[in-house]
Every structure is written in structure tokens, then in C-alpha cells.
């Protein structure tokens, strides 16, 4: 198998560009930028910023596209956030905050390093196939940014939402609903209480999901993962990786390797601001067994 056809390459590159995108969720400057346009409170900024490329949508399409959140949690934010900030204001805030965060994290890196990384990552993002990928398409259609850090962040965001759309599609094929996916993964290696609360599910909804997982053969009666569940989830992760290979095939082996080299110091700095326990479940680049998050990326 050629290197550019190895699904593991897509996962490896995700671990390099995802931290660049993730500053928008975890860096204080990103939070401050949302607050400056009236989006006070973490979840207002999160839902407004991530949904803004779709326009002033209501809750239903965001429940579908984001996948892992309880509908009631999304409905608490949407559409009411658009009375606080328009989608255009939210987009400006998320880019401003992300650029300020990256500037703080990467000030020691040469300007040429950042510009080259932005050029290559932007080229990869420009090659995404957006059919069937709503969040990836909406981000790919945004106006091009002018400066290297802005271009770098927007390209990372387009790539991660493109991959996330593919991940949701793969999870749908498992026959599990969002809370079942989360509940199963939390019986493998994640914190039940953290992810239940972070995604807005009640104890009753979570317990019912585990009952359904037993009925579907994903958990034993003792709530341990079954071989069937483990294999089905592995197949969904492999499908996610295969569907995310397009940008790296387009970029080519040599330039993909160069981009990975350029992103390594950026990713390390950005990863430092991600809390040890987060819904992303992001691990450092390396030959580990999985490293996938518990639900949609």
C-alpha cells in the first residue's frame, strides 16, 4: 500500500492539525473574543462559533451535524445566541480569538515557518471533497483569510470539520445513536461522568442507552465491551480515516511529510492548552492503538 493510501496517514495528520484548530475551544484569548461580541459563557461561544458558517440556524441541523450533544443542550443555545451576535460577528470573533491565541503560542517560530505551514495546510484544505459534508463545506466556502495565522487556523478548521462529517457518517452506519456511541466509548476508556455532562445527557438517558447497547450486543450484561462492539467501532474508525485521505493524496507524499514536520512544533504548543480531560480525546502523535475521541470530532 502506498503511503498516501494508508488510512493511518489521515489519523496522523489529524493529530497534527486538530490541536491548531482546538485553541478556539480552550485558549483564554478565544474565550475573550467571544465575550467581546456578547457571547458570554463557554457554550454560547462554542455553539455560535462552530455553527456560524451555517448561518443563523436553529437547533435541529446542529443537533444532527454535531452528533454527540443532547438535543436539549443544543436548544438552550440555538437559536437564542443569534440575538446576542450575528453569525458574521461570531465568525469574526472566532477567527480573531484563534489568531490571537496562535500568535501567543507560536511567537518563537520564524514567520517563514508559519507561512509555509499555512500555504501547505491551505492547499490540503482546498482539496477536500465536500459532497455530503455539511460542516466541511460551510467552512470551505468561507472567504480566504489574508494573514498566515488566520489562513493556518481556517485551513485546520476546514480539515477537522471535513473529517468530522466523515466520522459522523461512519458512526451512523454502526446503527448506534449519539448517546449510545458515547456510552459505549466511556465503557472502553473514557470518563462517563465527564462526557455525560459535557454533552448534556441525563442519567436516565445514559442508563437507557447502556441498556440498548446490551440488547444490540455492544455491551455485556456486566457493561463490558463485547468483541462485536469493539470490531464494529474499529471498522467505523478505519472508515473515517479512509474517507479523510483525499487532501493528503492531493498534497503528495513529499509535501505531506514537510507539512507534518512544520506542524509538529505548532501542535505541541497548542496541545499544551488542551485540558487533560476534554471531549476531543486528542493524543500526541505516535504509534498508539487508537487515540480517537468518544464521538464526533
UniProtKB/TrEMBL annotation:
InterPro entries: HTH_67. Pfam families: HTH_67. Residues 277-297 are annotated as: Disordered. Residues 284-297 have a biased composition (Low complexity). This is SalK. It comes from Micromonospora olivasterospora.
